[in-house]
Sequence to fold (626 residues):
Amino acid sequence: MIPTLKDVQSAVKRIGPLVHNTPVLTSSTIDRMMNATVFFKCENFQRMGAFKIRGATNAILQLSKDERARGVITHSSGNFAAALALAASSLNTKAYIVMPSNAPAVKREAVAGYGAQIIECAPTLKSRESTTLKHQNKLGATFVHPSNDLNVILGNSTAVWELAKKAENLDVVIAPVGGGGLLAGTALATNYLHYYIETIGAEPFGADDAYLSLKTGKIQPSINPKTIADGLKTQLGDKNFPIIQKFVSKIIRVEESEIIEAMKFIWERMKIVIEPSSAVAVAAMFRNKTDFKNRRVGVIISGGNVDLSNLPF
Amino acid sequence: MIPTLKDVQSAVKRIGPLVHNTPVLTSSTIDRMMNATVFFKCENFQRMGAFKIRGATNAILQLSKDERARGVITHSSGNFAAALALAASSLNTKAYIVMPSNAPAVKREAVAGYGAQIIECAPTLKSRESTTLKHQNKLGATFVHPSNDLNVILGNSTAVWELAKKAENLDVVIAPVGGGGLLAGTALATNYLHYYIETIGAEPFGADDAYLSLKTGKIQPSINPKTIADGLKTQLGDKNFPIIQKFVSKIIRVEESEIIEAMKFIWERMKIVIEPSSAVAVAAMFRNKTDFKNRRVGVIISGGNVDLSNLPF
Fold:
């Protein structure tokens, strides 16, 4: 079932007080390069540095009092782990995060710093899932999927909603696609605005399962993805795929070198720190300029969490 | 002669249409750390990536028609070279930039890209000055000093003026000091606001000529300065020193390690790219927390031009 306009509006109201209405930036250099008017929705300035706090917050706020008391659980070694931990902490809810034993220390510390309890598992998908299920049952905690959850998708939809309020009459919006939670949320919200906005996805060639899923009409697994955009290695799910199928016009794929170049370009010219996943959306725009020519373009900068001691340039 | 309130207001009006009214950002993490409310005036988002376009624009706009026709000249291998080149280009004026033969290619290209003519000199102060004088006389171009020029200082004063309009009731403002043009402009403008704002300078220990100048009451030369903040290696001049003496309450000095840490902290937490000179102001605030406790603090982030392939972390 695809959420309604009212669901989107409710999510906007529900999470508004708990997340940042992040700035929208522009660049005359990029406008000239693109022959377009481009608006960057800067979720790198969001709490914990990525849009993921939106979905996490919305998911927790939809729980009953009893469910909230028992807490939430997810498995993630990335931004969603920190997002659920922070959202839970802001809402006085307990969060349990299942993380692989080889997760970087800095990510573990971030999650622990927000007061979440880390549950270690072996670094395999199977161990992640079985460990999560075991603790979920034991604790009575509610599982929140990082991307394949309608409340998470609705939370994510609020970013482009805010963007459209600041940058009126957008023609097209581009967002990166990994697990599909951001792209589905973006496409959903744009669909309900009072004028038509095209939604385009952006994906690395090295992890193009969403592209293939749209092409074949069936969710394709993400097998051995190879990309610097580590947030985009996951695959679509049964909740977000129908939304993406219905409302996303196409997915533009980009090379690794294009991702790194776009990332460097944005850092150098716009002076903002964006993570590789965000650079995928920028790179897609740079690659397919004709899709955007003379249009008002929204770009969802999904986050800015990078390891400064390990940059690709 | 110290410029008046009217001079500041005129500069604000004069250059307003030609420069960005840059965003003011905040960080709840930093507010908590500081026990203060901190407003960052983000001149890293300014045209050509630094506040220097303000002074350059104001200086050119104050020239007569004849002077404009003959062009402007300066010697600089840093941000002011690019600033004068871009300001001149925007105002259909010719700019001549004297640059040492060992200036980095990337800086030469930026200046040339804005359409300025580069005049090469030997990499010594003597050659810079004599080459400039020679061409100044030959071309009839007006020399614009990067920091020791009242019109440049007045142009620079507009940054904090904008900040004070967005962040009301500031108690104190901190700005880095190198040649003194930004600090003098900042102190001048804050002095003319309708309520008292303290102005503090920030300087590396390795280039603390401004600190020593204030202490001794006499401009001290910058001898063999050693700091990563290459924008702060120059010394004060007879135009800006009296303003700094009159309106700046003190200068906080910081270690190189503090500059690098502050720079990394701002990149990681605020997701903005700031250059080492800007990090000096942040580091000074972090170092002397008691000076800022329970106050509304403005920080002038002077610029964001860094070489991403040569970062200190």
The longest strand of chain A covers residues 198-204. The CA atoms of residues 23 and 42 of chain A lie 6 Å apart. The longest helix of chain A spans residues 150-166.
